[in-house]
Fold this sequence. Notes:
By secondary structure, this protein is mainly alpha-helical. The protein has three domains: 72-161, Cytochrome Bc1 Complex, Chain D, domain 2 (Orthogonal Bundle); 186-282, Cytochrome Bc1 Complex, Chain D, domain 2; 295-406, Orthogonal Bundle (Cytochrome Bc1 Complex, Chain D, domain 2). 34% of the residues lie in helices and 5% in strands. It contains 14 helices and seven strands. Strands 6-5-7 form a three-stranded mixed β-sheet. Strands 1-2 form a two-stranded antiparallel sheet. Strands 3-4 form a two-stranded antiparallel ribbon. The longest helix has 15 residues, at 3-17. It is elongated and about 80 Å long. The relative contact order is 0.15. Residues 1-16 have low confidence and may be disordered.
Amino acid sequence: MSIAGEVSLQTRAQNARLAPLAIDGPASPVPWVRYAGWPTRDTSKFNSLTTIVSPPAPGAPRKISKTLTGDPAAGQKLVADRSRGGSCLACHVMGPAGGTDLPGNVGPDLSEIGNAGRDDEWLFNYVNDARVYNPDTVMPPWGTHGIFSEAEIGDIVAFLRTLKSPAKFKTALDDPMKRPAPIEQRANLDALINPAMWLIEELAPALWKTAGPAGRSCASCHSEPAQAFRTWAAAMPRWEARLNRVLGVEEFVTRHARATTGQNWLMQSEENTALSTYLRYLANGAPIAIDTAGAEAKAAYQRGEALSMRKIGALNFSCADCHGADKSASKWIRGQWLGELRGQLDHFPTWRTSQQSIWDIRKRFQWCQVAIWADDLPPDAPEYGDLELYLAGQNAGQKLSVPGIRH
């Protein structure tokens, strides 16, 4: 037998062991529509994970030939305006005039910036687009991206000149430098504490036994799921050659069910979320261990890493800007703690107490993009697969504990 014949036999044998997948068609609703209740602002003129369109950074600082004549009272209102990207207080302590109600510490304390000797030109340019001084800054380009007008930036500069007194906090919780990091201690697998356990105890087992249009159910082939899937989800996502992209648990549920039972449980549907959460629950305690040995998987991982560093949206943030250990991780943005990439995956899907719903990791990706004023993608977007693979690699060895529970 020729070498080509041997390879062909090996390929057929491998394919025979692969779980059936419906290759054609999307795994999420088409056209994709952003979730009800989420902001609907048009951010198409800024970078996304698929497109590079944001305005470039200025080549040099703007020259200011005369003293700015802004209104400090108007500037004080602008720095606290949460409709403008979350407000300056999300990242900066700004002294008594700025307010001391849970400011963040991603950026430097500006409480005494008025004593620093900075001229109007420097202050204007730093607010307008700090990239002229620091190309890798996490400061949004407020002026270049049109979030504040030149006149409004002048008002903010006038306010900054008045900041000459240190902040005085009523309690340690108000001070981001003393505020303790949150520790999740709730029993996430207790049904009395975590509503998502209803999916595990009721909905998913019922769906598992429900026959689809093809006359078969999950139980037709997997009568003992606890045994069959005790580690499977810990190795996901993975490169799937038949799709030519990374396949996650949620998309697997859609395509495998479609191919075997005839069910069309699209990603983000109640049925899909229940079953994908259940499959991860069955692997609880197993350490995350993805396969990036193959050339395609390695390339996808590298693409995911690059995507994690791409600055997107009107606020011009990347995943690494918020969760990189050398950037903003382990700091506060307003009252929200920014954790490192490691520790961001082992508890997903997670019950969000603030949303009263369970989110998988793709929905978390989508919300992060919407929150930084960027376009989100459909949950089966290849870019999310690459990003999830990279995140899984960063969480290698972490043991699954699903469903999680978080604010």
